[in-house]
Amino acid sequence: MTNRLPAFLIGLAIILLLVYSSIFVVNQRQQAVVVRFGQIKAVYNEPGLYFKLPFAFSGADKVQIISDQSLRFDLDNIRVQVSGGKFYEVDAFLIYKITDARRFIGIVSGGDRDLAEARLRTRLDASLRRVYGLRGFEAALSDARSQMMQEVAADLKSDAENLGITIEDVRIRRTDLTQEVSQQTYARMRSERLAEAELIRARGNEEGQRRRAIADRQVVELQADAQRDSEILRGQGDAERNRIFADAYQRDPAFFEFYRSMAAYEHSLGTTGTSMVLSPNSEFFKYFRSQAGTPSPAPAAPATK
User: Fold this and answer.
1) What letter would DSSP give residue 284?
2) Which CATH class is domain 69-177?
3) Burial track 127-138 (b if 16+ CB lie within 10 A, e otherwise)
4) Could you give the residue ranges of the DSSP H alpha helices within 78-172?
């Protein structure tokens, strides 16, 4: 009995090893391909526990695990030329999924994702250059951007299906000017803004001159109107003054004459520094010769022989 125990344990270990080598698990994020002597024997797309021939009998059974998730591949700093001849830098990415594991393993050596993405990189690069080459830079910033991405996805579809891959989406992340184009664009924009500023300044000067001319004309018109009104009022005032004088003269000619003489005295003699050379018997001083306020008769001239 004692001699049989080691043999039993060895047999049990061999059985457990055979069972372990014949079981593999596929989770929900994976798909498995069973390869025997370089030939694909089975593909498992559903999660679960699966069996294969143990290595003791098959000698070459191998399980290739392939991702069953959507994968992302980025392509950065691609230099493309637009229809206007200028160059721009583009960043893009695509979302893909391995939907035909059997084809993918058969076409891509060893099911290597890096090799598959290298082929996608070449095709994506060429497609971006073609799509941008048919359009100007503004297209990538307008509603045409979605159409451009659809065209790129359509270009990649055939090659991707040959690899067992489905392209789910293509996106352009960035479209930017290269350094030399940025400098040229900045210089052009600066020149345009300077020209626009000069135009606005010229229009402002023209408008200023027009408004100043209008203001000057209005000043001249206002001054002319004011001068005309002042002349009219002055004439009306003089006429009213003459009317009053005429009325006063008609009522009392003697008093009016006396008043006018007093006003003449005040105007002539009231100013400092005034010198007058007149005869005392002048008619101008006739009211000085009478205390009663009435003019005295002028002295008779000497008789002549």
Assistant:
1) G
2) alpha beta
3) bbeebbeebebe
4) 101-107, 113-133, 144-162
Q: Pseudo-torsion of CA 122, 124, 128, 131, nearest 10°?
A: 110
For the chain, what are the domain ranges? Answer: 15-66, 69-177
φ, ψ of residue 170 to 5 degrees: the values are -130, 130
C-alpha of 44 from chain center: 55
Q: For residues 47 and 25, what is the distance between their CA atoms, to the nearest angstrom?
A: 7
pTM above 0.70, yes or no: no
Q: Kindly give the confidence (pLDDT) of every residue in the chain, 305 residues in length, as a single tens digit, with 9 standing for 90 and above.
A: 556 767 666 766 666 666 666 777 788 888 888 877 777 777 888 777 776 777 645 555 777 788 888 899 888 888 888 877 778 888 889 899 988 888 888 888 777 888 888 888 889 889 888 888 888 777 767 777 788 888 888 888 888 888 888 999 888 888 777 666 667 777 778 888 889 999 999 999 999 999 999 999 999 999 999 999 899 999 989 888 888 878 877 777 777 777 777 777 677 766 666 666 766 666 666 666 655 445 555 444 444 33
Residue 145: which of 181, 119, 174 has the closest Cα? 174
Residue 265, SS3?
helix
- What 3-state DSSP class applies to 100? coil
**How distant is the alpha carbon of residue 146 from its chain centre?**
23
The whole-angstrom separation of Cα 264 and Cα 287 is 12
